[in-house]
Amino acid sequence: MQNLANLLIAKYALLQTIPAEFVYVGIQILFGLVLLLLFVAPFAGITSWVERRIAARMMDRIGPNRVGPVGFLQWLADGLKSILKEDLIPAKADGPLFRMAPYLVFTGMFSAFVSIPFSSALIIADLNVGIFYILAVTSLVVVGILMCGWASNNKYSLLGGMRSAAQIVSYEIPSGLGILTVVLLAGSLSMQEIIKAQGAAPWNWFLFNNPFSMIAFFILFISSLAEGNRTPFDIPEAESEIVSGYNTEYSGMRFLFFFFAEWANLYLIAAIAVTLFMGGWQIPQVLRHWALGINPWLPPLFELITFVAKSLAVVFVIIWIRWTLPRVRVDQLMALCWKYLTPIGFVCVLGTAVWMVLLPQGSLFTRYFLLSLALVTLLYFFWRVYYQLRYSNVALDFRPLL
Amino acid sequence: MTELKTQEMTLNMGPQHPSTHGVIRFIVKTDGEVMDVAIPDVGYLHRSIEKISEGVTYNGFMPWTDRVDYLAAMNCNVAYAMAVEKLAGIQPTKRAEYLRVIAQELNRIISHLLAIGSLAMDVGAYTPFLHTLREREAINDLMESLCGQRLTYNYARIGGVIYDLPDGFVEKTLPVLDRVERSLNEFDRLVTGNKIFLKRLGGIGVISREEAINYNLVGPNLRGSGVNWDLRRDEPYSVYPELEFEVPVGTGEAGLLGDCFDRYMVRVKEILQSCRLVRQCFEKMPAGDFMVKVPKKVRPPKGEIYVRLESTRGDMGVYLVSDGSDKPYRVRFRTSSFTAMSIIDKVSHGMMIADLIALIASLDVVAPEIDR
């Protein structure tokens, strides 16, 4: 952001008359607003449409297709409808808390966008404790959900709120351990520094750095799903068990706030995974040099496109998982967290530390090996899907445990 | 050290709850997530169908039978028709018997498809549910061409069935059966082998053989507990003795015998057997009349009778008392969901709330069948 401001100051004489700090802050606030209004808000809305369309495809139906071309404006229509609905507050609910809760959830989720690095120039605040900050502010969501679970004065909501508190607080530990692995590798908490420590080529990503970091990626991914209340960990709002849980009593605009936050969170999960493990906005040096020759604004644009494309790929995977898997039970969820993810997370941190001591430069062979392993797995997966779609007419074989 | 005391919470699950499959209420006493007991409270859907029968003629009661169990309307039709026929000494034609079996087995397929789909939905997997609904729609098209309805089928009549097969029914049905088998395969890959699904159902809601028999469970719920009992084979009626089929029973492959997974698996396997039965019926069905001549007003002689058949949810009985007039003196249906409800109280101790949902879904209770 500072580079961007310097560029602007050099270009416009008017800005040179104001102290540079004011320009920096002004641009930060301006960019924050632009980001929220022009990127995060529409993104959350559009994701709702995308998710419904993808879900519909998986279920062999059509999905929203009436408002706008292929139903693209459905999210606007739904948003408008929700805003216009009556603001219902249950008679015996705790009014002030009930009203405040959605905003806490919303704020917690959206404040995290402050340190999401969209490109080397586009980040509202490149905090030197960036990832730590994100972990801290997203914890506000627990308070919000627990608050609305309590304030609704509904037993189902209370159960949902309690489940959410237990779940999110627990899963912060494995996700913290996953993040710690990357922090070790990058030697910094700053989001930009973490990205700069990686490269554009996949074998330079932290994901393929060593076997431990690869496992750490999956730990982080699974814990993020749990922290974001996404299936298979959507137990706080399990609609078939506790009737939507913490948001049972919410309607209209307030209900929308929760889902707005959930969809924005979808992007947040993806952006964090991409930043920490998948090279963030890194583009090949050749491309950067070529683009710089044309226009200084081009490289950040390419970086932005790279970052968003990678994040969207992860978002797709999250949606796909949601519409495929059943929901785990609350005790199974806790068992997964404390018996498996947390110990494995510790092993990852220790393993990475040992790896870094033994191989300070890293091992190129390991990187290539892990990358090819991932590619082979992906290829096998796609081949299986293709095969099943084309030739699936085998005799029924009900032996689930084999 | 003093013992920590926790406060018990009473949670009303239902009458309107997404997973009670109709209007049923459970009074659930819980300590947090763990239930102490779940007491079923039935009666929210009572429509006094049995009382209505006393005011209409024998034939006039036929459309009411569909409503007893709206997911197995064909079976209810046939059960009632069989009772009246047996009491009045009417023998339907062979072709009518085959047509009835075709209708009943198709009905069994769609009922089980909905049962396994909604079970998957209740444990959180929404996609498989819609996949089963898709196949259900295909068979519903067939049912519509057969009898004109898509839910409350009304096909059997006293003395046979109302229509013969429509043109091209066999040609249309065979590919649908193939498709059901194929998509069941897909469903199986999506759901059955899923680790979470196995963990959610395996070893949960275990009903032992003795309990299942003592609590009078029937049909897939009984067979899920490992009891090899099927009225179609063990107390043959209609043309079932002429047909070949297997009776799947629970094997406890995902945990313990008689758990939710066994009941689920029995239903999945029964769908395949039903497909097999329908195919055989098409091959063996003789030509001829689909209805015998029956007086306009059936007047069975004075007396009473109890007839039962294997409905999709198990043993369905009809108790009929005639006073010699053209209206039944008393009709009573013995339905399987009612007894299935009674065991929930026993099994639910110490379960988690999420397990109760899986238990209800695996027992496949249908609210109107409980209350009638």
Core attributes:
heterodimer, A: 402 residues, mainly alpha, 15 helices, 0% strand, globular, disordered C terminus, B: 372 residues, alpha+beta, 3-stranded antiparallel sheet, 14 helices, 47% helix
What does this molecule look like?
The complex is a heterodimer of chains A (402) and B (372). Chain A contains 15 helices and no strands. By secondary structure, chain A is mainly alpha-helical. By secondary structure, chain B is of the alpha+beta class. Chain B is 47% helix and 13% strand. The model of chain B has no long low-confidence stretch (mean pLDDT 87). Classes of the chains: A mainly alpha (402), B alpha+beta (372). Chain A binds chain B through residues 55, 58-61, 155-156, 159, 162-163, 231-232, 234-235, 238-243, 323-332, 388, 392-394, 396-401, and chain B through 9, 11, 17-19, 32-33, 120-127, 130-131, 134, 181-182, 184-186, 188-194, 196-200, 253-254, 265, 268-269, 272, 352-355, 357.
Detail the poorly predicted runs of chain B: none
H and E order of chain B: EEEHHHHHEEHHHHHHEEEHHH
What is the total tally of β strands of chain B?
8
Major sheet size, sense and barrel closure of chain A: none
Tell me the span between the first and last alpha carbons of chain A: 55 Å
What is the overall silhouette of chain A? globular
**Rounded mean pLDDT score of chain A:** 83
Helix count of chain B equals 14
Q: Numbering strands along the chain, what is their spatial order in the largest sheet of chain B?
A: 1-2-3
How helical, in percent, are the residues of chain B? Answer: 40-55%
From the alpha carbons, calculate the radius of gyration of chain B and give it in angstroms: 21 Å
Fraction of residues in H or I helices of chain A: 55-70%
SSE pattern of chain A, N- to C-terminal: HHHHHHHHHHHHHHH
Reported for the largest beta sheet of chain B, the result is: 3 strands, antiparallel
Round the mean pLDDT of chain B to the nearest integer and report it: 87
- Multimeric state: heterodimer
